[in-house]
Amino acid sequence: METTTTTTSTSKALMFWLAVTCIVTMASAVVPLRSAEATQDLGGCIMSFVSVEGCVEAIHDAVTHKVYDGLKHECCTAITQLGDNCWPLLFPGRPAVPLFLKAVCKLIGGDAAKVEKVAAPPY
C-alpha cells in the first residue's frame, strides 16, 4: 500500500511539472523569452530539483498541500541556490512561491520536524 501511495505521489508531482513545462512552452511560443543569457534553460531549472531525490515531490507537497516533511537539507540547498530567473519559468504567475520556499527552508534549516512548531496554529 505504501508503494502505491509513493508512486501516486510521484506521478502527481511529475504531472504537475509536466503541466508547468507545457504552460511555459506555450507562453514562450507566444511571447519570446529574453536572451539566452537572461533566462536559464527550463530543463536546467527543472534538473536542479530532479537531481535531488524526492525534491520535486517535496516542493509539490509544500506548495500545494502545505506539507513540509519532504524538504530535506539537499532540497533546501537546491531551492536556495536556484537562480532567480528560473522561478518564473517553474511557477509562472506565482511570484510568492520562491519567497515562501526559501523562507520555509531558512526556518527549518533542512529539518522538516521544526515546521510543525512553526506551522502549528496558536490555538
Number of helices: 7
Tell me, rounded to a whole number, the average pLDDT: 74
Alpha-beta classification: mainly alpha
Largest sheet, in brief, is: none
Number of strands: 0
Our measurement of the CA-to-CA distance between the termini, rounded to an integer number of angstroms, reads 34 Å
Helix content estimate: 55-70%
Strand content: under 5%
Order of helices and strands: HHHHHHH
> Which regions are unreliable across 5 or more consecutive residues at pLDDT < 50?
29-39
Large-scale geometry: globular
Radius of gyration: 15 Å
Pfam families: Prolamin_like
Keywords: Signal
Organism: Hibiscus sabdariffa (roselle)
Protein name: Prolamin-like domain-containing protein
Please give a handful of descriptors for the protein shown.
mainly alpha, 123 residues, 7 helices, 0% strand, 67% helix, globular
